[in-house]
Amino acid sequence: MKLKNTEKNESATPSSSIILLGVLKGYLNNPIWFLIQSKITFKKIRRGINLEFSEEFINTSGFMAWLYIRLREKIGQEKAFEIMRAGILTTGLAIQQANFRNVEKKRTFENLRKFQQKLNKEGITKQNKMEILEESDKKYEFKVTSCAFFELFSHLNVPELTSIMCSVDNAIFNSYLPEKIVFHRNGINHTIAAGHKYCEFVIENME
Questions:
Q1: Which is deepest, 95, 96, 121, 201, by most CB within 10 Å?
Q2: What is the count of structural domains for the chain?
Q3: 77 within some domain
């Protein structure tokens, strides 16, 4: 069987609805109907989002926020947040694994840098403002000074969801090549979501 060539794709798009449905099944009596209603009612919410982001970004991330808002009304904030954490982490990691071409390309420090930069230019995170601080054979350090997720979620009055997106970053960088690469943020809470001026990313090659 020949693998589909995804090298030219700008970003990966696994079916997030299927993943979310699997998570919601454990908590809602009729998760399919909940998703359908959310899709229908999101159209009105979408018209009120006047941020200068791509349509794809607003449609996907904005819909995640709307799901959270509707869940919060049904089962309370704490449970709604944990359900969204499970759904976004699962979906986000699946998308990032594909964006970093873990199947097509060997996992190396060099490829990690290459695909992170490609994703920042062409993928969903191209909305962010990123600055590379150091790039060598042993260390890749950059900071994000403007986070589109935080701006969109704050616009929709759910800024707390941004921390889940930070967790997706933690998951992909820590799982990419855990025996040889170490990821950290130069300290605790060094993200915009936690009140820091910018998000810090430090990836070290331990080979």
A1: 96
A2: 1
A3: yes
Instruction: Label residue 19 by pLDDT band (50, 70, 90).
Output: confident
Tell me how long the chain is.
207
Query: Distance (Å, rounded) from C-alpha 57 to C-alpha 36?
Result: 20
CA 62 from chain centre, in angstroms, equals: 12
**What's CA 183's distance to the chain center, in Å?**
17
Q: Which 8-state DSSP code applies to residue 183?
A: E
Question: Per the structure block, which two tokens stand in for 186?
Answer: 């130069």
Q: Within a domain: residue 5?
A: no
pTM above 0.90, yes or no: no
Tokens of 104: 């097509």
Assess if residue 1 is contained within a domain: no
- What SS3 class is residue 204? strand
For residue 49, the enclosing domain spans 16-205
Q: How does 138-169 read in b/e, with b if 16+ C-beta sit within 10 Å?
A: eebbbbbeebbbbbbbebbebbebbbbbbbbb
pLDDT digits (tens, 9 = 90+) for 63-88: 999 999 999 999 999 999 999 999 89
